């Protein structure tokens, strides 16, 4: 029997994600992983960063790629399948490349657990909407929202990957020290990797023109914007010679 779109759960899921994002702005303390991890970490011992990031991100890839593979149309057929392909590409990179290269310090299990649940929910929401609900006009591929959105998605992903590469190069394998990131968009902001990721999901929201896409972009903006601001304060406190003109997330502004 063909799956029929249920609009109400899609809207409820999108509204929940947007609300979660807005609530992040009220948190005064940063989430306790990476730079902001309490040492010693309370509760269950943290997992090696590579294992943790792999397990955390894998569900988003499996769920979205599973739904993409299950549907009968070709990847370059309707816009919905192509857009879901881009979502899968992001999570393929995050799961099988970023996670396996990271030199991060051990990662608390509680955040891995929460992150995995988010990844299952978000992966399902985005994939379900694009395959079973989205209806794009025939000329969507020529629409400015699609073209600009794809451009921003690729640009943001490029900035994110390049910035994460710069951060990785700050450490030798086995080190967990922090240094001042230099180069790329780090010249202007402390959260260059986050800025890239936010641009990426704004592009996705534009190209998909969808409630789940918009909700995820908003969530990323709130969550990563907040975290960039905490990183910035961490750097200012830790390094006396931290570049004074560098902002937290938006060059010259914030
Ligand atoms: N879309 C979303 O909502 C979302 C949510 C979370 C994360 N993400 C993405 O996931 C990726 C990782 O996120 P994150 O929060 O872990 O990023 P992060 O805090 O910037 O850390 C990224 C990596 O670089 C290391 N690092 C950071 N600053 C460093 C410094 N000054 N010197 C040496 N090493 C440094 C970190 O090590 P430590 O772990 O030891 O600090 C970690 O391995 C990012 O690309 C982010 O955009 C996306």
From TrEMBL:
<keyword id="KW-0726">Sexual differentiation</keyword>
<dbReference type="GO" id="GO:0030154">
    <property type="term" value="P:cell differentiation"/>
</dbReference>
<keyword id="KW-0560">Oxidoreductase</keyword>
<keyword id="KW-0221">Differentiation</keyword>
<dbReference type="InterPro" id="IPR039357">
    <property type="entry name" value="SRD5A/TECR"/>
</dbReference>
<protein>
    <recommendedName>
        <fullName>3-oxo-5-alpha-steroid 4-dehydrogenase</fullName>
        <ecNumber>1.3.1.22</ecNumber>
    </recommendedName>
</protein>
<keyword id="KW-0492">Microsome</keyword>
<dbReference type="GO" id="GO:0061370">
    <property type="term" value="P:testosterone biosynthetic process"/>
</dbReference>
<keyword id="KW-1133">Transmembrane helix</keyword>
<feature type="domain" description="3-oxo-5-alpha-steroid 4-dehydrogenase C-terminal">
    <location>
        <begin position="106"/>
        <end position="254"/>
    </location>
</feature>
<feature type="transmembrane region" description="Helical">
    <location>
        <begin position="144"/>
        <end position="163"/>
    </location>
</feature>
<dbReference type="GO" id="GO:0005789">
    <property type="term" value="C:endoplasmic reticulum membrane"/>
</dbReference>
<dbReference type="InterPro" id="IPR016636">
    <property type="entry name" value="3-oxo-5-alpha-steroid_4-DH"/>
</dbReference>
<feature type="transmembrane region" description="Helical">
    <location>
        <begin position="201"/>
        <end position="224"/>
    </location>
</feature>
<comment type="similarity">
    <text>Belongs to the steroid 5-alpha reductase family.</text>
</comment>
<dbReference type="Pfam" id="PF02544">
    <property type="entry name" value="Steroid_dh"/>
</dbReference>
<keyword id="KW-0443">Lipid metabolism</keyword>
<keyword id="KW-0812">Transmembrane</keyword>
<comment type="function">
    <text>Converts testosterone (T) into 5-alpha-dihydrotestosterone (DHT) and progesterone or corticosterone into their corresponding 5-alpha-3-oxosteroids. It plays a central role in sexual differentiation and androgen physiology.</text>
</comment>
<feature type="transmembrane region" description="Helical">
    <location>
        <begin position="107"/>
        <end position="132"/>
    </location>
</feature>
<comment type="function">
    <text>Converts testosterone into 5-alpha-dihydrotestosterone and progesterone or corticosterone into their corresponding 5-alpha-3-oxosteroids. It plays a central role in sexual differentiation and androgen physiology.</text>
</comment>
<dbReference type="GO" id="GO:0008584">
    <property type="term" value="P:male gonad development"/>
</dbReference>
<dbReference type="GO" id="GO:0006702">
    <property type="term" value="P:androgen biosynthetic process"/>
</dbReference>
<keyword id="KW-0256">Endoplasmic reticulum</keyword>
<feature type="transmembrane region" description="Helical">
    <location>
        <begin position="82"/>
        <end position="101"/>
    </location>
</feature>
<dbReference type="InterPro" id="IPR001104">
    <property type="entry name" value="3-oxo-5_a-steroid_4-DH_C"/>
</dbReference>
<dbReference type="GO" id="GO:0047751">
    <property type="term" value="F:3-oxo-5-alpha-steroid 4-dehydrogenase (NADP+) activity"/>
</dbReference>
<dbReference type="GO" id="GO:0030539">
    <property type="term" value="P:male genitalia development"/>
</dbReference>
<keyword id="KW-0521">NADP</keyword>
<feature type="transmembrane region" description="Helical">
    <location>
        <begin position="9"/>
        <end position="27"/>
    </location>
</feature>
<keyword id="KW-0472">Membrane</keyword>
């Amino acid at each position: 029997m063909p799956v029929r779109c249920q609009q109400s759960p899609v809207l409820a899921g999108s509204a929940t994600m947007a609300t979660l994002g807005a609530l992040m702005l009220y948190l005064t303390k940063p989430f306790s992983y990476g730079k902001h991890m309490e040492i010693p970490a309370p509760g269950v011992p943290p997992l090696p960063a590579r294992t943790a990031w792999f397990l955390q991100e894998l569900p988003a890839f499996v769920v979205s790629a599973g739904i993409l593979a299950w549907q009968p149309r070709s990847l370059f057929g309707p816009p919905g399948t192509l857009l879901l392909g881009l979502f899968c590409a992001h999570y393929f990179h995050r799961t099988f490349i970023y996670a396996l290269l990271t030199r991060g310090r051990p990662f608390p299990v509680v955040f891995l657990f929460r992150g995995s649940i988010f990844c299952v929910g978000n992966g399902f929401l985005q994939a379900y909407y694009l395959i079973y609900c989205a209806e794009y006009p025939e000329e969507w591929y020529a629409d400015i929202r699609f073209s600009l959105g794809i451009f921003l998605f690729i640009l943001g992903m490029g900035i994110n990957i390049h910035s994460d590469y710069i951060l990785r190069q700050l450490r030798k394998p086995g080190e967990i020290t922090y240094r001042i990131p230099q180069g790329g968009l780090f010249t202007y902001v402390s959260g260059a990797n986050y800025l890239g990721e936010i641009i990426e999901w704004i592009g996705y929201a534009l190209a998909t023109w969808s409630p789940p896409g918009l909700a995820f972009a908003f969530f990323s903006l709130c969550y990563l914007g907040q975290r960039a601001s905490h990183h910035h304060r961490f750097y200012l406190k830790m390094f006396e010679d931290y570049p004074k003109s560098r902002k937290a997330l938006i060059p010259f502004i914030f």
